[in-house]
Amino acid sequence: MKIIVVGAGIGGTSAGIALQRLGHEVVIYDRMRENRPVGAALSLWSNGVKVLNWLGLSREVAALGGRMETMSYRDGADGETWCRFPLDPVASATGQRPYPVARADLQELLMRTFGTERIHLGKEVVGLEDDGERVTAHFADGTSDIGDLLLGADGARSLTRDWVNQGGAPIERSYCGYTNYNGLVPADARIGPLTEWTTYVGEGKRCAVMPVAGDRFYFWFDVPQPAGLPYDRTEGKQPLLEAFDGWDAPGVRTLLEAIDPASSLNRVEIWDIDPFHTWVRGRVAILGDAAHNTSPDIGQGACSALEDAFALGILFATNTEGVEDTLLRYQAVRSERAGDLVLRARRRGDETHAFDPAVTQAWYDSLRTQDGAGIIRGIVGNIAGSPVNLGGGVLISSALGGGVDARDGC
Question: Where is each FAD-binding domain found (predicted)?
Fold first, then answer.
């Protein structure tokens, strides 16, 4: 069977690898002209890592991942540590250590594993046709390709999603109320311990670092502000210096000084999409951000795309009633859980960004007495329902207090 994948991101390439290993002919098209991932790095929680393990990449991913032993929250004003606790209970409960990874490193690994000779860049899809037996993708350069099915992993502004949703209510993106700045800097213990996820908070803003391979920190700043504010790259980090003026925590000041806008600084307005459950039309289906565009507030965006790839692989390996039937089963397996993660991330973002100052202040107050158990419960709660767990959920440890949920998050 020939499968066309539109989009060479995390979801598209991982789905391509899974289906290729089942013996299908898979080809990937992407409108980008070179591999330039959006965002510096990402959180691979245990569910995402397990999918990559399943794809045969366990050693490679472990080598790319940062060693993250502990987590802490600190006061952005003066650097006082409010709470600090180990992350071992996440691995104990789920069976897999999480890894922060540089997005470009993971993207390069997935593209190389799939086969770069079967990835065609600079190919923008402008139209689709499905005659009930074959799907045709038409490209902006006047060429086309025909396959037995097509998977749209073409991102938050997906053309494939619009085609699948034809005749349905418009699917609109919603602004989450804040802008994220992110990048990579050399790891520096003055910012935070080299094996710790360190987060500074205050005024509804966040500044955090995670370790990734290559003795680097992945950093990000969240700034609540209206959408559409003008920004020119020549401004560099000036908006960050202004937004975090008055944050005198030594780690924050050291991080701001270390950022080199010419080498690594991205500015991204954060948007998401209300959950919806029409992911399939005939022989065409969507995955990744095209299906469940989410904010990064619980770190499950890439993991959810990897879960899509896992579900597609398992379903095409085990169901034989036809392409349309299998794609509908994929939709049934994935849309509810993926939508739930979007809403969990949205609630978490509302809590942490002072859209209701009293709610965020209550969160700050709770961090000062936090032993980590509630936060671990939230992280594990996001992982427990993953299809990669094969219904096994998690093994409850005493550190989880006897149960998991997603009320605390990360």
Answer: 2-342
